[in-house]
Design brief:
The complex is a heterodimer of chains A (109) and B (115). Chain A has 109 residues and is an all-beta fold. In chain A, 0% of the residues lie in helices and 58% in strands. Chain B is mainly β and 115 residues long. Classes of the chains: A mainly beta (109), B mainly beta (115).
């Protein structure tokens, strides 16, 4: 059965720390992997990854995909309280998107 | 407004009543998805449409749930004879599958509370 697993489920850090969020997947047909940030509303898009080894970067956030080992990581450097949210990983199998249960990040001042 | 819109944003109903949610996707998007999300969980796939055709429905979805997209534009999700376990956030998302990938664009969701 196709699935997406994220770890850790929750994380508490202090401002300025660097965090790494993990996402592993098993899908029959892989098109892309996407990262979303969800605060108290709908998920908002962060990154879309289709090729192994190519890092996507946006400010303090970066992400990379390993299609051989079937995982992706999302890094956040110099965390801020505004980074507190649930981070969702999703995999597109050409038809629908499978979501993990998310990593809840709490950044304390 | 060029985003995905959902209505109503909140719905409180009594067990056994029927409810209907509406989703208006981004106009040029041919794919429309419905997801359900409960506290502490990621979005769970319910169904999706390509234009007006419903291409897949989750086998976890009971017969009380039905969705339509009659003209390939807006969609409705109806839940009949609601149960307390139906309480959740119902998220609609749209995408275009042109090219190699299609990012999902989410609406703000419709939160259902069944008393």
């Amino acid at each position: 059965e196709d699935k997406v697993v994220q770890s850790p489920l929750s994380l508490v850090v202090h401002e300025g720390d660097t965090v790494t969020l993990n996402c592993s997947y098993e899908v029959t047909n892989f098109r892309s992997l996407l990262w979303y940030k969800q605060e108290k509303k709908a998920p908002t898009f962060l990154f879309m990854l289709t090729s192994s080894g190519i890092e996507k970067k946006s400010g303090r956030l970066s992400s990379i995909l390993d299609k051989k080992e079937l995982f992706s990581i999302l890094n956040i450097t110099a965390t801020q309280t505004g980074d507190s949210a649930v981070y969702l990983c999703a995999v597109d199998d050409f038809n629908k998107f499978y979501f993990g249960s998310g990593t809840k990040l709490n950044v304390k001042p | 407004d060029t985003g995905v819109s959902q209505d109503p944003r909140h719905k409180i109903t009594k067990r056994g009543q029927n409810v209907t949610f509406r989703c208006d996707p981004i106009s040029e998007h041919n794919r429309l998805y419905w997801y359900r999300q409960t506290l502490g969980q990621g979005p769970e796939f319910l169904t999706y449409f390509q234009n007006e055709a419903q291409l897949e429905k989750s086998r976890l979805l009971s017969d009380r749930f039905s969705a339509e997209r009659p003209k390939g534009s807006f969609s409705t999700l109806e839940i009949q004879r609601t149960e307390q376990g139906d309480s959740a956030m119902y998220l609609c998302a749209s995408s275009t599958q042109q090219g190699n990938t299609g990012e999902l664009f989410f609406g703000e969701g419709s939160r259902l509370t069944v008393l």
